[in-house]
Q: What sequence folds into this?
C-alpha cells in the first residue's frame, strides 16, 4: 500500500479527465434531455486540433509556448464540430421521436471517426502527441508527472469558470431557466436555440481540454480514442447524476479513483487474485456504478433541478 | 532511403557501419579479412581441384545462414567430479571456423575440447566435444526448456556470435545429467546422490 | 413529412459512415478473362490494413504484392498470371473468418497469405481446412495453430493440413528471450504483463515458464485491456516493484504507451516483448522513452541476408509508400511459397491447373508440403506441422532510436 498516494494521484488525474468530458454529456442532457453519443468523437477531434496546432509551429518550439495555441485550436475545432453537430444532426430532429437523435448520434460518431481516419494525414494509426521534457515533480509523498499537472490545473480552472458562468452571468441563468422549463423560458424571451448551442459549445470546449490532457498522458492521439473515453465519461455523468455539472466531475473522480484502486489493490485481497489488475478494472468500476444506482438511482449528487444547467 | 529503409527496424547498412568503425579496427579487420582470404585461396589452390576458383566473398552467406550445430549425445558423466561431456555435430554449406563455444549460465562451466578453433568444411560434418563442469548445484536450471549455446563463428564473410538452440532432446538430456550430478532433491552440495 | 425526411437523413449518415468504414480495402475485381491463353490465379491476402496494426498489415500487403508482380514479370509459372485479392481483417477474429469464407467462395483463389494476428489465424484455419484451401501465414506465432492445443505437454498434433507459416513460433521466442535476459543480461526479477489475446498471453506464458525454470523471480504480473491507452495505475505498480525489467506480451499499439508510462511513473527499467513490438512504429510513438527496450523477432536480421537485400531494393523500386515492417520478408516468402506450390501442380498437370477448383486446391495444399526454395528470409520449407524449418530469431535493442540486432539464435532440433 506504500504506493497509495501515487495511485490516488493516478486515479484523480484520470477521473478529472473523465469529468471534463462528462460535463458535455451532462449539460446537453440537462437542457435538451438528449444523450449526445457523438461526444466522444468531438473529444477526439479536439485532440487532433491541438496536434495540428503543434505541427504548424516550427520544429523545436517549446511545448510551454505551443500549449496556448494548441488549446485554442483544439477548442475551436471541437466547438465547431460540436455546434455543427447540433445544428445539422440534432436540431432537425428536435421534437421527433426520442430514438431518432440517438441513432443519428451513433451515425454521426461513426462518420466523424471515419472522416478523421480518411482525411487527417497519417491518422490510420495512432499519431504521437508532443510530450513535456523534464522529470516529475517530487512532492515528497507523491511524485507528479508534468503531464498530470496539466489536468490538475486545467480541471479546477474549468470547473470554477463554469460554476461562475452558470450562476452569475445572464446567459448562465438563462441556461438554468431553460433546463428547468424550456417552454416557459422561451415565453420569457430566452432564445432557447442559442442556449442549446451554448451547451454544445461548452461541452465541446471542455472535451478538447480533456483530449489534450489525454494526449499528454498517453503520448498519442488516434481516431479511435473517443470511443472508450466517451463511454467512461458517460458512465461518470450517470454516476454523478446526469444533468448536474458538479455531479459530472464528482462522478468522473469517483470512477477514476475506483479504476486505479481496482487495478492496484483488488489483486492483493486474498481470494480475489485473479480478479485484480488492469483487465478487471472496468468490471469493478461498473460494479460500483450499479451499487451507487441501486442506493441512489439519481446518482451521487442527484439531479437537483436548481443545480441543473 | 527514408521510408522504405526505416521499415522493419533494420539497422544501418553494412557500409555505414563499416564507415563508423575506428580506423584502427577497420585496418585490422581488412588485414584479417585479407589474411583469411589469402589462406582460403591458398587452401583451395593447394588442396582442391584446380578448377575450383575461389568464390567472391560477397556471395558467401553469413555464418548464421550456412552453419548448423545439432546435439548428438551426452557422455562421460562423472557425478563425483560433477563433470560430463556433450557431443555436438556441426555441418556447414561454406567453410567456417568455430572459434568458441560457451554459454552464460553462472552455474556451469562449458568449454570446447580441445580448446582450439575447429574448422568445418562443406559436406564433411564435424563432431565437437564440449567439456562441462557443474560449478554449483545451487540455482542450476534443472528444467529449462530451451538452453542454448553461444557460438562464435567465422567465415569469409563475417565473424558472428550466435546462439544455437539444440532443442528438446538436448534440454532433456541436460536435465537428466543435472539430476544425476546434483541429486533429484537439488541438494545444495551433494556431489553424489 | 418532416419525420420522414429526418429519418432519411439519419439513414444516409449511418449508411454513409458504414460504407466509409468498409471501403478502402477491396481491390477491383475484373479482367479475369484468359487473355492470350493465360489462366488467372488469385492469391488471397488477409491482414489488418486499417486500425492500430495497419503499419504491419500494410507492410505485409505491399510485400505480397511485390511477390505477385515479380512472379508475373519473370513468368515464374508458365501460362499463369497471378492476381491479388486483398481483404482487411482489422485485427478482428470475426472479420477474419468472414474474409476466409469469402476467399473460399471465390473460385479463382488458389492460396491465401495471412493473417497477421494469431487469434485471427485461429478463426480462419477451420474455414480453409474444410475447403482444402492452403494458407500461409507470415506472422502467426502462437504454437497451437500448427501443433495443437496440447503442444506444451509434448503432445503435438496438427489440426489442419492446410495451415502453414513462415514465422517462428512463440514456443521458441518466449524461452529464448528468457534465456537471454537471465543468462546474458543477468536480470533476475521480472514483471509480466499481457493483454489476454492469443498472441500476447501465449507469449508471456512461454516466457514466464522458462524464466521461472531458470531460477528467475516473477515479482508481479498483470493483465491489461488491449484497447486501453491509460495504464498509469499498472505503471505505478510496475515502477514500485523491484523488477529488473518488464515483459510485455502484447502488440506495439498497446505496448508502446505501456512502456512509456512505466518509465514516466519512475520505473527506470527496460520493457521487453516479442515480434509485435519489433516495429519502427513502437519507437516512433514514444521516441525518448523507448531507448533500451528490447524485442525478439522471428528470423535473422534481414541485413545479413543477400536475398533480403534484393528484396529491399525491389521494394524500394516498387514505390510502396509504407515500409515493409517486421513481416515484409515473411509475407514475400509466404506468397512465393503459394506461387511455387501452384507451379508444382501446373507442371504436374501438363501446364495448367486442374479444371475442378476443389481438386486444384487439394493438389496445391499437397504440393505445399514439398515446397523448398531460397527465400528472402533464408531457406523456406515446412515441417510435418506446417511450421517453417528455418527457425531463427533475434533479439533487438532500441539504440539511438532504432532497433539494433544484439543476438541471433538458431533453433535446430534433431
A:
Amino acid at each position: 500500500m506504500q504506493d497509495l498516494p501515487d495511485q490516488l494521484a493516478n486515479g484523480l488525474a484520470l477521473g478529472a479527465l473523465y469529468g471534463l468530458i462528462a460535463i458535455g454529456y451532462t449539460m446537453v442532457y440537462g437542457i435538451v434531455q438528449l444523450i449526445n453519443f457523438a461526444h466522444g468523437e468531438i473529444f477526439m477531434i479536439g485532440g487532433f486540433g491541438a496536434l495540428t496546432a503543434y505541427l504548424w509551429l516550427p520544429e523545436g518550439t517549446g511545448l510551454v509556448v505551443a500549449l496556448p495555441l494548441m488549446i485554442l485550436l483544439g477548442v475551436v475545432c471541437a466547438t465547431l464540430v460540436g455546434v455543427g453537430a447540433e445544428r445539422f444532426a440534432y436540431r432537425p430532429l428536435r421534437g421527433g421521436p426520442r430514438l431518432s437523435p440517438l441513432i443519428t448520434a451513433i451515425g454521426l460518431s461513426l462518420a466523424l471517426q471515419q472522416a478523421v481516419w480518411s482525411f487527417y494525414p497519417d491518422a490510420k494509426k495512432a499519431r504521437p502527441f508532443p510530450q513535456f521534457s523534464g522529470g516529475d515533480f517530487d512532492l515528497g509523498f507523491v511524485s507528479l508527472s508534468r503531464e498530470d499537472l496539466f489536468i490538475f490545473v486545467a480541471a479546477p480552472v474549468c470547473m470554477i469558470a463554469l460554476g461562475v458562468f452558470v450562476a452569475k452571468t445572464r446567459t448562465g441563468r438563462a441556461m438554468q431557466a431553460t433546463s428547468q422549463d424550456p417552454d416557459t423560458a422561451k415565453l420569457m424571451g430566452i432564445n432557447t436555440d442559442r442556449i442549446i448551442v451554448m451547451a454544445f459549445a461548452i461541452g465541446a470546449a471542455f472535451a478538447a481540454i480533456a483530449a489534450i490532457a489525454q494526449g499528454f498522458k498517453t503520448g498519442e492521439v488516434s481516431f479511435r480514442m473517443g470511443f472508450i473515453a466517451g463511454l467512461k465519461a458517460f458512465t461518470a455523468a450517470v454516476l454523478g447524476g446526469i444533468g448536474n455539472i458538479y455531479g459530472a466531475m464528482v462522478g468522473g473522480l469517483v470512477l477514476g479513483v475506483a479504476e486505479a484502486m481496482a487495478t492496484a489493490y483488488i489483486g492483493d485481497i486474498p481470494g480475489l487474485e485473479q480478479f485484480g489488475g488492469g483487465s478487471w478494472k472496468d468490471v469493478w468500476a461498473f460494479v460500483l456504478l450499479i451499487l451507487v444506482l441501486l442506493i441512489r438511482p439519481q446518482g451521487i449528487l442527484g439531479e437537483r433541478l436548481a443545480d441543473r444547467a | 532511403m527514408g521510408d522504405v529503409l526505416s521499415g522493419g527496424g533494420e539497422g544501418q547498412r553494412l557500409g555505414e557501419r563499416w564507415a563508423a568503425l575506428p580506423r584502427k579496427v577497420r585496418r585490422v579487420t581488412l588485414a584479417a579479412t585479407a589474411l583469411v582470404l589469402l589462406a582460403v585461396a591458398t587452401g583451395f589452390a593447394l588442396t582442391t581441384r584446380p578448377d575450383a576458383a575461389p568464390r567472391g566473398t560477397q556471395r558467401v552467406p553469413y555464418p548464421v545462414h550456412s552453419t548448423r550445430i545439432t546435439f548428438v549425445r551426452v557422455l562421460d558423466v562423472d557425478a563425483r567430479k560433477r563433470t560430463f561431456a556433450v557431443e555436438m555435430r556441426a555441418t556447414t554449406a561454406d567453410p567456417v571456423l568455430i572459434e568458441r563455444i560457451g554459454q552464460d549460465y553462472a552455474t556451469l562451466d562449458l568449454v570446447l575440447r580441445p580448446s582450439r578453433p575447429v574448422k568445418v568444411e562443406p559436406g564433411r560434418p564435424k563432431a565437437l566435444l564440449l567439456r562441462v563442469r557443474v560449478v554449483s548445484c545451487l540455482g542450476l536450471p534443472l528444467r529449462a526448456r530451451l538452453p542454448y549455446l553461444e557460438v562464435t563463428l567465422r567465415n569469409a564473410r563475417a565473424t558472428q556470435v550466435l546462439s544455437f538452440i539444440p532443442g528438446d532432446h538436448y534440454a532433456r538430456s541436460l536435465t537428466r545429467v543435472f539430476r544425476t550430478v546434483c541429486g533429484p532433491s537439488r541438494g545444495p552440495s551433494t556431489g553424489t546422490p | 413529412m418532416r419525420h420522414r425526411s429526418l429519418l432519411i437523413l439519419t439513414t444516409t449518415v449511418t449508411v454513409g459512415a458504414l460504407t466509409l468504414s468498409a471501403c478502402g480495402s477491396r481491390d477491383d475485381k475484373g479482367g479475369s478473362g484468359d487473355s492470350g491463353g493465360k489462366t488467372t490465379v488469385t492469391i488471397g491476402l488477409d491482414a489488418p490494413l486499417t486500425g492500430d496494426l495497419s503499419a504491419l498489415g500494410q507492410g505485409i500487403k505491399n510485400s505480397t504484392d511485390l511477390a505477385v508482380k515479380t512472379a508475373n514479370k519473370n513468368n515464374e509459372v508458365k501460362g499463369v498470371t497471378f492476381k491479388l485479392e486483398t481483404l482487411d481483417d482489422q485485427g478482428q477474429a470475426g472479420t477474419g473468418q468472414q474474409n476466409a469464407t469469402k476467399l473460399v467462395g471465390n473460385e479463382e483463389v488458389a492460396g491465401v497469405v495471412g493473417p497477421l494476428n494469431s487469434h485471427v489465424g485461429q478463426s480462419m484455419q477451420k474455414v480453409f481446412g474444410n475447403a482444402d484451401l492452403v494458407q500461409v501465414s507470415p506472422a502467426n506465432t502462437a504454437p497451437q495453430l500448427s501443433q495443437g492445443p496440447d503442444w506444451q505437454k509434448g503432445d503435438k498434433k496438427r489440426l489442419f493440413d492446410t495451415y502453414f507459416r513462415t514465422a517462428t513460433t512463440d514456443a521458441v521466442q518466449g524461452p529464448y528471450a528468457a534465456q537471454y535476459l537471465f543468462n546474458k543480461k543477468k536480470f533476475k526479477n521480472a514483471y509480466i504483463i499481457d493483454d489476454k489475446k492469443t498472441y500476447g498471453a501465449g507469449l508471456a506464458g512461454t516466457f514466464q515458464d522458462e524464466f521461472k525454470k531458470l531460477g528467475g523471480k516473477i515479482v508481479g504480473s498483470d493483465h491489461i485491456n488491449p484497447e486501453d491507452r491509460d495504464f498509469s495505475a499498472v505503471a505505478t505498480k510496475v515502477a514500485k516493484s523491484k523488477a529488473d525489467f518488464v515483459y510485455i506480451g502484447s502488440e506495439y499499439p498497446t505496448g508502446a504507451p505501456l512502456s512509456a508510462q512505466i518509465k514516466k511513473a519512475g520505473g527506470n527499467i527496460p520493457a521487453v516483448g516479442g515480434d509485435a513490438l519489433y516495429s519502427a512504429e513502437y519507437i516512433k510513438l514514444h521516441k525518448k522513452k523507448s531507448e533500451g527496450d528490447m524485442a525478439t523477432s522471428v528470423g535473422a536480421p534481414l541485413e545479413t541476408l543477400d536475398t533480403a537485400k534484393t528484396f529491399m531494393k525491389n521494394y524500394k523500386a516498387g514505390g510502396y509508400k509504407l515500409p515493409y515492417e517486421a513481416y515484409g520478408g515473411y509475407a514475400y516468402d509466404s506468397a512465393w511459397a503459394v506461387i511455387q506450390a501452384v507451379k508444382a501442380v501446373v507442371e504436374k498437370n501438363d501446364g495448367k491447373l486442374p479444371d475442378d477448383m476443389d481438386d486444384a486446391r487439394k493438389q496445391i495444399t499437397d504440393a505445399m508440403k514439398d515446397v523448398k526454395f531460397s527465400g528472402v528470409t533464408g531457406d523456406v520449407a515446412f515441417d510435418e506441422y506446417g511450421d517453417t524449418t528455418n527457425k531463427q530469431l533475434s533479439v533487438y535493442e532500441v539504440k539511438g532510436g532504432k532497433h539494433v540486432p544484439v543476438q541471433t539464435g538458431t533453433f535446430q532440433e534433431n
Summary: Chain C has a mean pLDDT of 88.
